[in-house]
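Weekly modeling sync, notes
Attendees: S.R. (lead), two postdocs, one rotation student

Agenda item 3: backlog of single-chain predictions. S.R. asked that every request posted to the team notebook include the full sequence so nobody has to chase files. The rotation student volunteered to paste the first one in as an example of the format we agreed on. Action items at the bottom.

Example entry:
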Amino acid sequence: MDVQLGTIAEDRNFIANIVKAIEKIDLSPVQWQASSIVAIPAGYSAIWSVVLAEIHGRLGYFPDVVHVRPSSAFRMVWNARSVDSSVASSSP
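Predicted structure, as returned to the notebook:
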């Protein structure tokens, strides 16, 4: 699944836009909870926080997160650094 958020203005209430974008993912509540989701964080932490909270609410746990770093050779190319599944697999 690839959810494109596009450009979201910082001076507006963007939570509703993010919820609408995630609602476009065609999964039932059962499918959400049975799916293995891996997320790549957005560059803007306020948006990423809302995306992460919305996904957590649908999954019932935090998704695995791919940590990226810029490629030294190209400005707009990112390399996967690691996948953090410790949050998703930790018990309360």
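Discussion: group reviewed the output briefly. The two ends are 28 Å apart (CA to CA).
Action items: rotation student to repeat for the remaining queue; S.R. to check formatting next week.
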